[in-house]
Amino acid sequence: MEQCPIALPFDRPGPFDPPRALAGLREQAPMTPLSFVDGHVGWLATGYEAARTVLADPRFSARRELMHVPLDLGFAHEIAGGPPEAGEFLRMDPPEHTRYRRLLIAQFTARRLKQLEPRIAEVTQTCLDRMEAAGSPVDLVREFALPVPSRVICELFGVPYARLEEFQNHLGTMVDTDAPGEEAMEAYTAFLEFLAGLIADKRKAPGEDFFSGLVDSGELSDEELTNIGFILFGAGFETTANMLGLGTFALLSHPDQLALLRGDPSLIDGAVEELLRHLTIIHFGPLRAALEDVEVEGALVRKGQVVVVSLPAANRDPKRFTDPERLDITGSAQGHLTFGYGPHQCLGQQLARIEMRIAFPALLERFPTLRLACAPEDVPTKDMMIVHGVKKLPVAW
Ligand code: HEM
């Protein structure tokens, strides 16, 4: 007998854990029928292998016009709707997607990332100086988790220093969950205008930065560049910011793990991977639509059905990870799916890793007595967002 479709669960037991119901579902079967807000019935992938299959199999599409949304949080238009616009490669399939992906990979060179490292270290120290000057207690999100990646994005885009603040203000308002809708919309429009101006400047005088490289490739129209710029911002800024905020909260809430890391800074690479796995901040999707009937781990996904891939559930699959519910910075988080898998796997993952490997140790070194400045349950979290994180993190030292 066919199982009754469930609604996407959202009963998160704590700030670091995915919805409680996911583990029970995964135990029953790696794929569960899922009901969507428009009446569509698709699937929820909770098993590690099922998630990888859906993300890697070319019979599953990322195209926007094929999507349905499993719950309405006001961002349905970002996920489902008409076909992708020029340059919106996150919602395209190969070979269209591959063309953009190649152009971007050509700019994310090891040399450019290496060059960014000292700049990221500088930016981090500047933010820490400000945080220290502001004095204990402060909101770590405002002083550290947001400004570090926002300045790194400025480096990536080659935003001139004179316009840094303007750019950062647009970014800040767009991701501010408490900003009224109109303000966020205005910031969005202003950001697009800002990007258009930046593209025009770089066409005239390209610099050494990543975005100049894309403009200078001569292969992309202004429309494509604007959409790519927007994806880079969306994918690269809020994600890393949330990892820095939620990651610090997790470390401060696990004193044994924090002590281990403070005692042996060489553990940082493993700690970053484990924080990525344990927190799996992309809590909603990726989504894929079946282009034909496909069997996934015993479930028959019919042509046209949409699968919500639960990365948090996959990253806690006991069939793949030992003791997956525990945060263990010395454990093996290798193979986690936090950056996705398959053709759309995160393009900025090395950059994100570099940022975290620099930022966490710098923070801990600067403030040896860093602690939460409120009760853990009073830290406001972004529960109903695509990207999970903390809205504020009051800390003291
Ligand atoms: C901790 C931080 C980050 C996380 C957790 C993360 C996660 C992800 C995930 C799960 C995907 C796959 C989406 C899908 O399959 O539909 C993705 C794609 C992508 N990410 Fe990231 N990301 C992070 C940081 C970054 C950074 C710093 C950048 C660049 C500045 C970036 C750029 C991208 C781009 C361009 C894609 C689309 C790739 C494609 O469609 O081919 N990400 N990211």
TrEMBL record:
Gene3D superfamilies: Cytochrome P450. One of its GO terms (molecular function) is oxidoreductase activity, acting on paired donors, with incorporation or reduction of molecular oxygen. The keyword Hydrolase does not apply. It comes from the Bacteria. SUPFAM superfamilies: Cytochrome P450. Keywords: Heme, Iron, Metal-binding, Monooxygenase, Oxidoreductase. InterPro entries: Cyt_P450, Cyt_P450_B, Cyt_P450_CS, Cyt_P450_sf. CDD domains: CYP105-like. The keyword Transport does not apply. Belongs to the cytochrome P450 family. PANTHER family: CYTOCHROME P450 YJIB-RELATED, P450, PUTATIVE (EUROFUNG)-RELATED. This is Cytochrome P450.
